[in-house]
Amino acid sequence: LLTKHIFLTHPIPIPSPFQSRSCVLGITRKTKERKMAGTQPLVKRTCVKKRTKKFARHQSDNFYRVGASWRKPKGIDGRVRRRFRGNIPMPSVGYGSDKRTRNVHPNGFKSAVVNNVSELEMLMMHNRTYAATIGHSVSSRVRKLIVERAAQLAIRVTNAAAKLRAEEDE
């Protein structure tokens, strides 16, 4: 029976591909986005994750046919399901992040998807908490209108430069 054990010799947690390294380490860094935008978050908290390592499926290290993505064990005699000591941990509510920093980007804002200018108006009173993210299917013409209106309302747009090309002189 082969088992793979990985012991970390350093105290730095390894981030998952879905979160930034600064968020995992509890470090805030000044980015060019923060320098160029006028609107600052109401409260800037460092987000600290309780667990950054992904939960692995039971026996995924023993068999190639068993994928590593988490599946809840459902067997009648399962050691992992019954939470015996020395087995892999199961995801539970206790691993959740702090409610105040959950879904908060490293820039300090929560994200709200905006598809038109009228949806941007809803963020007017919450411009220090939420930042607008322009939807994937929005045309470049409407994107330009959204970015202009967001500047008037002092709303941060996370992807303001997306799909905007420099106009060519004719």
UniProtKB/TrEMBL annotation:
Gene Ontology CC terms: cytosolic large ribosomal subunit
Ribonucleoprotein as UniProt keyword: yes
UniProt keywords, alphabetically: Ribonucleoprotein, Ribosomal protein
Pfam families: Ribosomal_L32e
Statement: the UniProt record of this protein carries the keyword Ribonucleoprotein: yes
GO MF term (any one): structural constituent of ribosome
GO biological process, one term: translation
UniProt-listed SUPFAM superfamilies: Ribosomal protein L32e
Family that this chain belongs to: Belongs to the eukaryotic ribosomal protein eL32 family.
Protein name: 60S ribosomal protein L32
